[in-house]
Sequence to fold (552 residues):
Amino acid sequence: MNKLRTLLITLLALFIAANADARKPVIFMIGDSTMSTKKLDGENPERGWGHVLPGFLTEDIIVDNHAQNGRSSKSFLAEGRWEPVLEKIQPGDFVFIQFGHNDEPGKGDRTTTPGGDFDDNLRKYVNEARQRGAKPLLFTPIVRRIFLNDSTLEDRHKDYTEAIKRVARELSVPCVDMNKLSDEFITNLGPEESKAYYMHVAKGTCAAHPEGKQDDTHLNARGARAMASMAIDAAAAALIELKPYVRHYDFVVAKDGSGDFFTVQEAIDAVPVMRGKNRTTILIREGVYKEKVTIPANRPNIAMIGQGKAVITFDDFANRTNRFGETLGTSGSSSFYVYAPDFYAENITFENTAGNVGQAVACFVAGDRAMFRNCRFLGNQDTLYNYFGRQYFEDCYIEGTVDFIFGKGTALFNRCEIRGKRSKAYYVAPATPQGTEYGYVFYDCDLTADPGVEDYWLARPWRDYGQTVFVRCRIGAHVCPEGWHNWNKKEREATSYFAECQCTGPGADTSRRAFGYVLESADKYLPHKVLLGDDGWCPVTHIPDSVDIKYP
Fold:
């Protein structure tokens, strides 16, 4: 019994240790309104820089913002706001501390004295955070936008700024001088341009502030993003452990108000037309964005990165009618459109939720050199429309029912799962134009299906010269022995090109294929070759070890 009890205790300890190791570090934030998370009622534009900070970090770290409007270093303690934070802190976490605005004289029982209780409060936060195994950082307060003249701001925080620096030196704790950084930033902007970063709201333009507002202390989303950018860069410079978590994007889209925009289309519309070779990066924070989104041809080189479960979804379908009574058609049903070249997407789900109502596209791609990594494409019939151009899909998941990957584009699918959802259906319907060297190539992919699905075909030619090749794919038993379907047009067996090479799995037996080729060598279809075109484009990140590749 004792041996069993000892074993159980040991296993429990190992389980706890394993889960502790898997826990993401947390940045706990304590401070005042310039740092706090704001309510979004009435389209309130106000933000604290802590509110938007997650948009500058990877998914490997969590921000837990406890900053509160109107709090000083004294009142935050007096109201019992520090104890709940302290209880949650674990070794390896970080604590960002910023007070000063409400510690100033004239704030009643919130006021503290630099060199006295203000310093004592800071020491308490730092020492107790360290006792819990966290790494504290002190931040001086950001400036108020009060110009004495065109080039000088009034410094209302001087004594508190010096006190924070003094405590930082005394306790050997990193200090980010946001007072100096924000002063330089706002001063360089000048009296007029700097208004765009603070809560200057015109009357009748915002439901949250119907009478308007002229506030030179609190930030709007643009101002908060600017301050957060400076804050996290300075913090990572002062505390090297933070550096791996820092990321910068041109725009951030977030449902919780922590970004520049609430919708994906707003961010795309904000991209300057024809930036050329300059990449515009857009972070899509976790959330479901129900909107039809278009990347127009005049906005090339956009990269969209999803954070958490970022979903772009809509529910149009081909037979739905517009305001003029016209049906949308297959092309018009899509949730997401790409017309611009050099589009990149990562960690995003593209979805059409119309259901089994005929053609309902989740993603329509007509831009050349489009790349999708670790993305999901969810729908039923006609999920992914490769309308035109070269497209690369890596580690993606694509599901559907009938011909759910289709079009005349050249598309390479590398290490993807392709999942059928209905019996007696088809994975691919290529419409490859005559004379095109490559159509669809699936390399190292898994061809799967929902439970109970059977009699699935690999592909059928939508147009006469459709091409589909499966190389080193794992094919499930749900795929019928005939493999390929001629779309009831016998002549297409001669004009189309369907082939398999080195595939495995219960559905990979080629002895009863209706037509098509079994290739002895896949040299022509190696991932780095398929998309080269005339410009040598090679987006593939994983090349088989046996390939001696020379990049163009």
User: Anything to note?
Assistant: The domain at 251-388 is CATH 2.160.20.10 (Pectate Lyase C-like). The longest strand covers residues 302-314.
